Amino acid sequence: MSATDTASKKPLLGKSLEELKAIAVQLGLKPFVGKQIADWIYSKHVTSIDQMQNISKEARGKLEAHYEIGCTQPVDEQRSVDGTVKYLYATSQGDFIETVYIPDGDRATLCVSSQVGCKMGCAFCMTGRQGYVASLSATDILNQIYSLPERETLTNVVFMGQGEPFDNLDNVLRATTVLTADWGWAWSPKRITVSSVGLAKGLTRFIENSACHLAISLHHPIPAERAKLMPAERAFSIQNVVNVLEQYDVFRKHSLPNRANDVSRQRRLSFEYIVFAGINDSLKHADALLKLLRNLDCRVNLIRFHDIPDTPLHGVSNEGMVKFRDYLTSHGLFTTIRASRGQDIFAACGLLSTAKQEEMKKSQTGFKD
Description:
By secondary structure, the chain is an alpha/beta fold. It contains 14 helices and 14 strands. The longest helix is centred in the C-terminal third of the chain and has 15 residues.
């Protein structure tokens, strides 16, 4: 079979049960074959159609003529001394994305990407410097988990990698549906967190169509100053984000009298806050944060900033981080300091994929350093 024939095949990974049944019927097979396909992909994690042994050879042949699983192995990796691993994946469109595996005792978290590059242009983010290239398909999103060498050890997945999830919400929701559906991976939504700067077009839709945890990239509580770090503030301010969140009982503080027995409260709302020296680390900023979030049942995750190339931003000392956390906690806002992982491989940056994208551009143009 030629490379062109292979490239023309459509992926099965990311398809819903109903879509897989429809594919079976289109190929002249019984609808139950679609359920068998779903089981082989989402429960048994096969890498080829030929491995689906309870489907007849003739049926597998029909399926294989038009479809493939859609899984591809990482093309590169970087390993940290602390056990963190950053994987580089090629997408179905020939671009590159990063995925970070973070083991921590009996927990293991995977930070997945939703886009190649990003439109948000945050001042502290290497991915933003790439600019926007493409949104990932549900297949490309799920492949980061499906083809992960450590897949069986995963306890949590966070959509905090490259890209803005709400700018690709159709495919993010499709991927999280596969992860949580009975016919899919059957994970609890509590194992999945989706992070966003709070895009208006996706916030309400995500809240109402997903049971996964929500994390908002906050990083500064004062709108005018936040806009200097995060251009998205100008289009949809953090105050507007909070106003929307306050409309939902699941996120509103003290909205229900018996919280211990309220199942909906199991859905967590958190705010991500990278602490920058002289930018957002004063008691003035802490007080503004307390005022902004006063009506929400939430937590704040403080994140240490590790310098990236060509930026005037700098991190805060450990003492400064602790002081900021303790002030917020003492005033009733549950706050944690996220442990830094993979510093020696720049686990939180888009350096690996950026380098690969540049390498590809040079090879395509014939440019040499």
